[in-house]
Write a structure and sequence with these properties.
4 strands, about 25% helix
């Protein structure tokens, strides 16, 4: 307890939501990414999705609007803009990242996993401000979600 107290009293910048939750007197729901005031509207999911159809399947309760050419060959990376209201659609912008390899034949590794909607939600939470805990029994993809988040 002394270490926790010393940590919380240092000049280090600790967000208020973490300070309160960490000490046990704050509302744990305030650490959720959905509760953050400065939640980014656009999230670069990079290669989380295998194709445009996977994006649509990952948000079953949302209307999804694909922009640009989302062919499976050249659009494996996606930026998603989340609406400010539930009536508006998700705006999905596919893109092809610039190759930055040292050798012309060097190819970047891409995600081979078809994440479920719950796993995509965990990745979204992990890339947003706030605290994210990914829990589950063995074999449910916790490590894959953590790797994709990082």
């Amino acid at each position: 307890l002394e270490t926790i107290r010393d940590l919380m009293l240092t000049k280090a910048v600790v967000p208020d939501w973490l300070h309160d939750v960490f000490l046990g007197y704050g509302d744990p729901a305030s650490a959720s990414y959905r509760s953050m005031v400065s939640l980014p509207r656009t999230v670069d999911f990079r290669d989380t999705f295998l194709d445009a159809e996977h994006v649509v399947q990952s948000f079953p309760a949302k209307k999804v609007e694909l922009r640009g050419d989302a062919t499976p060959d050249d659009a494996r990376w996606f930026r998603i803009t989340f609406p400010s209201s539930d009536e508006e659609p998700l705006i999905v912008d596919p893109y092809t990242p610039e190759e930055k390899g040292l050798h012309p034949l060097q190819k970047r590794r891409v995600n081979p996993i078809r994440f479920t909607p719950v796993q995509v939600e965990a990745i979204h939470s992990g890339t947003s401000p706030g605290l994210t805990l990914v829990v589950g029994p063995p074999g449910t993809g916790k490590t894959d979600v953590a790797v994709q988040t990082i």
